[in-house]
UniProtKB/TrEMBL annotation:
<feature type="domain" description="EAL">
    <location>
        <begin position="24"/>
        <end position="276"/>
    </location>
</feature>
<protein>
    <recommendedName>
        <fullName>EAL domain-containing protein</fullName>
    </recommendedName>
</protein>
Length: 280
């Protein structure tokens, strides 16, 4: 009987696996067409300076509407990475976002752009040239661009990755560690890569004021960042209490639904011209 149950459990597990594999294959097959059909869009989430409440940057976040269905990035970025389509997709996001932010800057909005990188994008042969070309063609100054990486990216091809990111930094581009604190080697990463910024993962920020350990860890990360001369950004701010504590800790910048949701390009322009509601 135990054997029978065990066997059934394996079957259920296999069925789940199967559904997941099928979904990934379907997504992979659709990605190529989606790219050709312009089904992707970029949304922008404001990042505010916590001391002044001023929007200092926007983070570009890719969006895919597959027909009427929204597919979250976490569902298609993996298949895009596996098929290599992440390379042309990321290049499109890079150009689109650089052009849009350069246009806002031209209309005298003094903001920067933060972009998420994928590992395959970095290891692609012309990565450094592609980024500098996008800057040159859009007119966006290198110092207005921040590239976000996660620790996992330094596991494979670490030397190539560090080398390319360092080349871009030498051009004036800023580097950020995204989801800081969740990887297995946050501190080692800081030693290997010349970064300007750390972004504290929402799993810490969520516990602010509610969980003593998470509050203490957040405070420690903020202090560590400052001691190293880094800009510290808190992600996933949803409650006023979190904002208050982060300000008190001296965290540099904040991002989250309370401060502003990711929005289409036209939303950014009007947001920037009216003061933020929730952060005063
Ligand atoms: P991330 O870079 O850490 O981006 C932050 C994610 O948190 C975004 O999810 C954003 O919509 C969400 N978020 C922001 N504020 C809040 C909040 O207050 N509460 C909660 N619950 N969530 C919040 P999104 O857009 O689904 O992106 C997920 C991840 O996908 C990103 O995490 C990033 O790793 C990746 N990603 C997104 N766009 C791109 C892209 O253009 N290229 C690459 N390579 N990766 C991307
Ligand atoms: Mg990010
Ligand atoms: Mg993050
Ligand atoms: Mg993330």
């Amino acid at each position: 009987r135990a054997k029978e149950l065990g066997g059934r459990r394996v079957e259920v597990f296999a069925a789940h696996m199967h559904a997941d594999v099928v979904r990934r294959l379907e997504i992979a097959a659709d990605l190529q067409r989606a790219l050709l059909d312009n089904q992707f869009a970029v949304e922008y989430q404001p990042v505010v300076d916590l001391a002044t409440s001023r929007v200092t940057a926007v983070e570009a976040l890719v969006r895919w509407w597959r027909g009427n269905t929204f597919v979250p990035p976490e569902q298609f970025l993996g298949p895009a990475e596996d098929t290599g389509l992440i390379v042309p997709l990321s290049e499109w996001i890079l150009r689109e976002a650089c052009n849009e932010v350069a246009a806002w800057r031209a209309s005298s909005l003094d903001i920067g752009l933060s972009l998420n990188l994928s590992l395959r994008q970095i290891t692609a042969p012309r990565f450094v040239e592609t980024v500098s070309q996008a800057l040159a063609e859009s007119g966006l100054p290198a110092s207005a661009l921040t590239l976000e990486v996660i620790e996992e990216m330094l596991v494979e091809d670490a030397e190539d990755t560090i080398n390319k990111l360092s080349q871009l930094r030498a051009l004036g581009v800023r580097l950020a560690i995204d989801d800081f604190g969740t990887g297995y080697a946050s501190l080692a990463f800081l030693r290997q890569l010349p970064v300007d910024m750390i972004k504290i993962d929402p799993s810490f920020v969520s516990g602010l004021g509610r969980d003593e350990t998470l509050t203490l860890l957040t405070r420690t990360i903020v202090r560590l960042g400052h001691d190293l001369g880094l800009i510290v950004v808190a992600e996933g701010i949803e409650r006023p209490e979190q904002l208050e504590l982060l300000r008190e800790m001296g965290c540099t910048r904040g991002q989250g639904y309370l401060v502003g949701r990711p929005m289409a390009a036209r939303g950014v322009d009007s947001l920037m011209r009216t003061p933020l509601q929730n952060t005063a």
